Structures are given as structure tokens and as C-alpha cells.
Amino acid sequence: MTTEAPRSVYNERYELAGQIARGGMAEVYLARDLRLDRPVALKVLFPELSVDRNFVERFRREA
Predict the structure, then answer these.
(1) Which of 6, 42, 47, 53 shows its CA 20 to 30 Å from the CA of 25?
(2) Three-state SS for 2?
(3) Contact 46, 27 (CB under 8 A)
(4) Which numeric CATH code is attached to 3-62?
(5) What pLDDT, on the 0 to 100 scale, is given for residue 55?
(6) 21 by DSSP, 3-state: which?
(7) What confidence score (pLDDT) does residue 24 get?
(8) Is the pLDDT of residue 4 over 70?
(9) Interstrand relation of 14-22 and 26-33 (parallel, antiparallel or unpaired)
(10) Other Cβ atoms closer than 10 A to 57
(11) Residue 5, SS3 per DSSP
(12) C-beta separation of 14 from 34 below 8 A
């Protein structure tokens, strides 16, 4: 199930279509990669966790 989101572009590359999941560290969005012109899932770390180096490293390992 996708929660509709206002159309916005993230990082000048991904057009967000809606949220598809939310976890303890991040949200996952259905998006369109504007460079590759294809649908993708985009996982975005919560801003409050992005200042903690340990969380950022853990997030990168998950990817």
C-alpha cells in the first residue's frame, strides 16, 4: 500500500510518488529516478539520526 505524497523531487534526481514503508531508522518511498527514467524504492534516513555517525554507518551497511 502506498501513501500518496505531494509531488516533490529529492536530491534533484528522484521524484517521490508516495511512502510505502516506515521503520525505526528511515522511510521508504516509491519514486522515479529522473536520470534513468524508471521506478525505484528510495530509503531516506530520518534527519534526527543523520547527525549520529553510528546511525549513518549502520544505514549504509543496510543498503
Answers:
(1) 6
(2) coil
(3) yes
(4) 3.30.200.20
(5) 86
(6) strand
(7) 87
(8) no
(9) antiparallel
(10) 10
(11) strand
(12) yes
For the record, the C-alpha cell of 53 comes out as 555517525
Q: For 5-61, how does the pLDDT look when each residue is reduced to its tens digit (9 = 90+)?
A: 556 998 899 999 999 999 988 999 999 999 999 999 999 999 999 999 998 998 899
> For the whole prediction, is pTM greater than 0.70?
yes
pLDDT at 7: 63
Dist CA 53 CA 13 (whole Å): 25
For 25-52, give the DSSP string.
SEEEEEEEETTTTEEEEEEEE-GGGTT-
Q: How is residue 60 written as a grid cell?
A: 549504509
Q: Which grid cell is 55?
A: 546511525
Hunting for cell 516509491 — which residue is that? 30
